[in-house]
Design brief:
Helix content is 27%, strand content 32%. By secondary structure, the chain is α+β, with helices and mostly antiparallel strands. The protein is globular and about 50 Å long. The structure holds uridine-5'-diphosphate.
């Protein structure tokens, strides 16, 4: 079979042409970057785990009526998704102070925020993804007011649902990043959830010990990075019983 045509390669994923019009194949790599590519590394098995974790979370979100780009998982590292026009914004939702908000506003990491806070960043590597306001977004036409209303409403529902889901498995959802896309059906446009939801773009802390179970282990050289991603999958009940060896792919059965 001819290899699919590659359309785009990002830091952690590759997009290939899909089997039918309006679809793409999203391939999850083990590559990890931090600080906008300043730090590079490999987290063995990350792609396989993020594919599974994102599949699981997107399916659960679909069950409560959140429209997502996820169609189905194809294999260990690939999933079929709907092709959308990505809105060039990162939506960050925070429940507990960590990372940039802690540094920028001088709030001690781990402080519960008075309410969930939503922020926008412009997706632009050359500019280091600067934070932008609704004024910037509508003035420069990155999204309209109605688009933002949809994105905020979806983000807050996603946050409530995921906070509960993770708390149920002993994990605090500290913060996370979402991306949305525009999907046209006939002449109608809908905003749907795109990209991925995984320990690459969420801060997940053990709710008892506050131990970090996400990409901060890589960003901050805390060690046990692979183990943290595995533990998240295990708690969500989606790590194969046989453990990590199972993640390398099927072996020949006699
Ligand atoms: N995040 C992300 N991609 C980015 C920037 C942030 O997925 O380009 C996620 C990050 O994993 C965290 C949340 O968004 O869960 C908030 O990140 P923050 O603004 O604190 O930035 P950081 O400290 O990671 O640079």
């Amino acid at each position: 079979m001819a290899r699919r045509r590659q359309l785009y390669e990002g830091k952690a994923k590759i997009l290939f042409e899909g089997p039918e019009p309006g679809t793409l194949v999203q391939y999850f790599k083990d590559d990890a970057t931090a600080g906008n590519g300043a730090k590079k590394g490999v987290i063995t098995g990350k792609g396989v785990l993020n594919n599974r974790i994102s599949e699981y979370l997107m399916m659960r979100l679909a069950e409560i009526g959140i429209p997502t780009h996820f169609v189905r998982r194809l294999n260990m590292r690939e999933q079929l998704i709907r092709e959308v026009e990505i809105i060039p914004l990162e939506v960050v939702i925070r429940n507990v102070a960590a990372g940039s908000i802690a540094t920028r506003l001088g709030i001690e990491e781990g402080t519960r925020l008075p309410r969930s806070i939503l922020e926008y960043y412009l997706k632009n590597d050359a500019l280091n993804d600067p934070m932008v306001s609704e004024e910037h977004i509508t003035a420069f036409g990155w999204a309209g007011t109605a688009d933002l209303d949809d994105m905020v409403a979806l983000s807050l529902r996603i946050n409530d649902f995921l906070c509960g889901l993770f708390l149920g498995v002993g994990i605090t959802l500290v913060d996370f990043k979402l991306e949305f896309g525009r999907l046209w059906e006939n002449d109608e446009m809908r905003i749907i959830l795109a990209d991925e939801i995984s320990p690459d773009n969420c801060r997940l802390w053990d709710s008892r010990t506050n131990e970090k179970m996400d990409k901060d282990r890589f960003r901050r050289d805390l060690g046990k990075v692979e183990e943290a991603y595995q533990e998240v999958a295990k708690r969500l009940g989606i790590l194969p019983e046989a453990g990590v060896r199972d993640l390398k792919g099927p072996e020949a059965v006699q």
